[in-house]
Every structure is written in C-alpha cells, then in structure tokens.
Amino acid sequence: MRSIGIKPGSFVEVKLTPYNTWGIGKFLGAIGGVARVQYFDAPGAPLPDIVECPVASLQGVRLPIQTRVYRRHAAGRWQVGRVLHDEDNEVLVQFPNNDRLTIETEHLQVRWGRPLHDPLSLLAVEATETPFLADARSEFVRQVSRQRAAAMGITALLSSAIDLVDYQFEVVRRVLTDPVQRYLLADEVGLGKTIEAGIIIRQYFLDEPEHARTVVVVPATLVQQWRSELSVRFGLEGLLDRRLHVVLNRPGFRGGSTL
C-alpha cells in the first residue's frame, strides 16, 4: 500500500491508536480538520459507528491485487470480487464468471481488520465466493495441515531440498523441542550431520525471522561447502554474510565475538 490523495469515498487507514489496528476504512469527509471514517464489517451486518479523528492521522491506500471487495448490485444483492488494479480511486475488479468491471471506490467495500462479529449475517446474504474456489482452498489447507503434522511442525523439513532419513529426523526433533538447545552432533562421516545442522539453522531463522543470528565455524576446507549447502539445500543464500556467517576456525576464535 502507498500514500495517495485523499478524497471522499477513498479507502484510508488511520495511523492513530486504537484505529491503527482496524485496517482499511472509507473516508467520508472532513470538517475543521476532523475527518470521518466509516469501517465495514461484512455484507448484511450493521455498519460500525463512524470514527472521528484528525485529518493528519489519515493515510490513503491503494488496494493490493487480490484484495477481496464487495459491492451492492443494482438488484440489491451483494457481489464479491477480487482487485486486479487500483488507480486514482478507480478499481478494476474481477467478479465471478470472469466479469471484469472498473468501479469507483465509493461504490466498493472492504472488510476492516477486526474479526467477523457474526458469520451468519454474511452467509444469509450469500456474499461468499464460489464453491469451486472454496473447495480448492480447502484441499490446499488440508494438504498443508497433513504435511505439518507429518513433520511435527518442523517447517524447515518441508522447505528444504533434502532427502531425510528417520534417524536424522529424530535428532532434529530432539534438538528443536529441547528448551536448552546445546548439543554436540557426533556421528560417522557421511551420516548426515550437515543436513541435521542445516535443518536446525533454517528452523531457527523461520522461527525468529527478525532476530536470528548464526555463526557456523568450520575448517578452511569446508567453508565453501557449507556456504553452498546453506544456499542450495536450505535456501538461506540471502542471509549469508548478513545474519548467517560461515567463518574459518582459527586459533583464539570466540563464538561470542561481534561480527
């Protein structure tokens, strides 16, 4: 989303507590520096009370592609569509049966960011998307749920380019489920310690995407191999030399040193 000129009927966000968590509303107008914003819960549901706030706290927004929008059809029924393009308060929307229309924002509604208060009102006006799309999404969710269950929630297993064997999975599971994760992975050469460590590192970055920092200390002959493994097998190339460092084991090295 990006800032745009704000006109009555435009979609806006209010950058003021508590409304900054309410998502998208519609700008109705302003008098004396006080803006009026109307939020939308769902078709068939009562409109929430109008919010009054300083004009300076408003930020105009353009609707991202695939945002779900609602409009009231001429016959009084609600239609559900998806945004294809938003430009200067005119939105190209795709409705069912590949029906595409350009509609001014004042004639569209977008749900705010708060939980749906009463799902029955939405179902009663039949303002849901087609069963075809719902069935496809449901099957996708079921498959993702099955995969997560099979991996016991260790999503790094599902998103790494590896062939895992049972004993490696058990090692990874034990380390990641232990609140004190201080382990020495010791095994014969070629039995997958690099894969085990790589999964643990990837999971760490998935769980702590903003704060994770990792240093891998290896002999000189293994520096390039580890960099390649972390990039190709575990998809961490974008973090190398930023928050993920593969360094040469040298005399006097201390893991707590600032990188």
Automatic annotation (TrEMBL):
InterPro entries: P-loop_NTPase (IPR027417), SNF2-like_sf (IPR038718), SNF2_N (IPR000330). Keywords: Hydrolase. GO terms for molecular function: ATP binding; hydrolase activity. Residues 182-230 form the SNF2 N-terminal domain. Pfam families: SNF2-rel_dom. Transmembrane segments: none annotated. Coiled coil: none annotated. This is SNF2 N-terminal domain-containing protein. It comes from Roseateles puraquae.
